[in-house]
Task: structure prediction
Amino acid sequence: MLRIVQVVESPQSPDDLDPEIAAMPAAGTDPPGTPSDIGAVKDRNEARLLAIDGVEGVAIGLDEFGRDAIQVFVRDSSVGSLLPREIEGFPVFFVVTGEIRPL
Result:
């Protein structure tokens, strides 16, 4: 697989950044145990997501860019429109699984 990337020159020092942008934390970059840790984010929001009709489960996954994300298992694709696009800075994506029943 051939991957084409664009090299972008980064600022030489934090002083070169826009102050508002420099102050913003990047999603998923905080060390474990901080408020934006993906596991803690999932745990804090799982009950709210499971309360949405058609949501079958919630997990931690990776989005199409390889970033930590909240993965939501849904009965059908129409449920996807009921989900937030992100939670606490982490992207949310859904996977259509159909109904999940215990064995």
